[in-house]
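Notes for week 9. Today we move from apo structures to complexes. The key idea is that a small molecule is not decoration. When we ask for a structure prediction with zinc ion present, the ligand SMILES becomes part of the input, just like the chain. The input block below holds both the sequence and the ligand string. Read it once before you look at the output, and try to guess where the molecule might sit.
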Amino acid sequence: MTRHMFGWDYPPGAANDPSAPYNQQDPPCEVCAKSCDNCICPECPVCQSNGDPACYKNHGLVLNAEQIQSQEAAKEQEKIEAAFWEDYAKSHPEEE
Ligand SMILES: [Zn+2]
Ligand SMILES: [Zn+2]
């Protein structure tokens, strides 16, 4: 088990938000942007790994429609989160 760097450094009140990045147990898949448990990436026929961006560069894998859609949804989610934290910083100027 590795502890994540966010262990204690979150703003009060947001600690129990299950969708907050520091409450995610695993980093999302780098290819489809879903959590490891929900990864939709096919297995690479060359190295048998799932969701490895290198496979799309080096092993001839091509993103399918579902993966592209998922990436786009993740980008949207990122924008929403960025806006949330921006707002949060404005309304909590005293806190780090
Ligand atoms: Zn994936
Ligand atoms: Zn591969």
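The pocket of zinc ion (ligand 1) is lined by residues 29, 31-32, 34, 39-41, 51 (CB under 6 Å).
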